[in-house]
Amino acid sequence: MAVPATVAAVPASLYVGDLHPEVVDHHLFEAFAEFKTMDSVRVCRDRVTMKSLCYGYVNFKSQQDAIRAMKLKNNSYLNGKVIRVMWSHPDPSARKSGRGNVFVKNLAGSIDNAGLHDLFQKYGNILSSKVVMSGDGKSKGYGFVQFESEESANNAIEKLNGSTVGDKQIYVGKFVRKGDRILPGYDAKYTNLYIKNLDSDITEALLQEKFSSFGKIISLVISKDDNGLSKGFAFVNYENPDDARKAMEAMNGLKFGSKNLYVARAQKKAEREQILHRQFEEKRKEQILKYQASNLYVKNIDDDVTDKELRDLFSSCGTITSVKVMRDDKGISKGFGFVCFSNPEEANKAVRSFNEENGQENTVESPLCTATNRIGWIFNSSYPWWISTLLLS
Question: CB–CB of 66/9 below 8 Å?
Fold first, then answer.
């Protein structure tokens, strides 16, 4: 199709996101058919399942038409869902860097993608705006706005953070990727408490009565199953962070009903995962340090020697916590193995005993070898994967 003379013939591509799973190429084509220089469309799919990835691209021969399409179609409905239309960025590094990306929370339920865009558009050119929705199409109260420039993002944060929109005071700050978020310290301000070890007959009214003495409660809920029965835990959200801290310090460990309550600051899933990962790493390092001087490497082992025979040979030197003859995928011995003692002293004893008995280069008669037999130290740095797996399993 010829490009009209009045339209600049500069190709452009638009990204179309938040598509309904049932939207296919021809639906996208029909949605943008009014723009005469539209060149092609594509809904992206999983290579294995061929299911829609819920986003696609619309390519234009004219940049002018692409600009018009973005203005008219962004936040419009397609198959019952509001779609997002923005410039396509072939370089993912710009998108993943978070540059110009703003996080907004405590949004009123009435604010949708278009409302969020309208709220921020006077601060700079917006590449994308999105309010995160639940499965039933209701706002989760937070969203993201990505500006073309970092300067625009900083300006929006300065002007809008702490302002009242609708009936809520919103928070506006720089978007921080999950892996870069820092865990709150002891002095962190919080209002939401997590409470567990609740008796099944504890009601929200009883909990309200018990916890309201520390300050004004904004919300309180006991988590329940599909049958309406208590799951034994609840959340209490205070208006004032100081009241939340007082309640936690006073109520944690206190007997309520037949059980002692556990009361702590409510944590998001990402934060809990980060804490657990850190605890695991600390425990792993502790185990490595504990056992690195207790683990021996034994080589020149005869092919038919078993784990039990290796254990029996070394058991006279102390308490053995683990023994392993290393084998290939077919179960054939690789001629070396590991013996881990309960403490470094026992491992030292084994090294001295066997090296003194066998000498450094002596040929000996032993069920473990038919040639030179030597026993020496091995530290975790030499075989970190196998040793750490052995010690922590």
Answer: no
365-393 per-position pLDDT tens digit: 333 333 333 333 333 333 332 322 233 32
Rg (CA), the chain: 32
In eight-state DSSP terms, residue 35 is S
Backbone CA torsion sign across 26, 79, 148, 37? positive
- State the virtual CA torsion across 316, 317, 322, 325 in degrees, nearest 10: -80
Domains in the chain, start-ordered, CATH in brackets? 13-89 (3.30.70.330), 98-174 (3.30.70.330), 192-266 (3.30.70.330), 291-365 (3.30.70.330)
Both tokens of residue 293? 């001087």
Residue 11 CA, distance from chain mean position: 38
CB atoms within 10 A of CB 259: 13
Question: Which residues partner with 145 through β-bridges?
Answer: 102, 129
Rounded mean pLDDT of the chain? Answer: 79
Structure tokens at 16: 């179309």
Residue 84: Cβ within 10 Å count? 20
Task: Report which of 251, 256, 253, 244 is spatially closest to residue 220, judged by C-alpha positions.
Answer: 244
User: Residue-wise over 312-351: b if at least 16 C-beta within 10 A, else e?
Assistant: ebbeebbebbbbbbeeeeeeebebebbbbbeeeebbbbbe
pTM above 0.70, yes or no: no
Among 16, 13, 126, 33, CA closest to 81:
16
- The residue with tokens 């040979």 is 313
Amino acid occupying residue 239: E
